[in-house]
Amino acid sequence: MASSHLQTVDLHGPAGRLEALLNTGSDDAPFTALVCHPHPPSGGTMHTKAVYHAMKAFSRYGLPVLRFNFRGTGLSEGEYDDARGELDDTRVALDWLDATFHKPILCAGFSFGAYVGLKAACCDPRVQALVGLGLPVSAAGRDYSYSFLSGCHQPKLFISGDTDEFSPRAILEPMVAAAPDPKKIVWIAGSDHFFFGTPNSPASKLDTMRHALEAWLPSTFPELAVS
User: Taking the complete model, does pTM exceed 0.85, yes or no?
Assistant: First the structure.
């Protein structure tokens, strides 16, 4: 991992303060990155393991990486708003990265954070790539629609476990196929939704997920290639 320092950041959203952490990265980094966390009422935070591993993947290339807690999570003010207010929170984070670094942004999210992050960043000219980790289709009675992907022409990477209970392969594959190029989907063998493994393959798949993201980044953006 490239040299990075951790800084506490306070974002100011429509519901109040949003608690955030910035891994600073390199001064000459060509991009910055944002990583959004999973469903808050289900325990998702910016410290969720998949979010942390995504941060490590971006940090490997020296990118400044911002993580934040959605409204009502951790020390963030406000209350959970069923993805509506969380879209506004994500836009606040994108605005902060743009105003602070004046560099193109790569936007990633895990589970609920993938849905919110992709929807907020789609068609935003400041965002150069979208990454959906464990993109949910249906979870605990919540259904997610991705019709907005038809307008997303940025490079897109989707990484999911091949036994993801919230994103069946038979549903996710045609949905991704309908999205405009460039795009790629990676299936992690023996992985559930959280990249924790399965009874038949119990070892954690978080490193495998992170390595898939690390491999995609320089193949999509050659300026990130590490000598």
Answer: yes
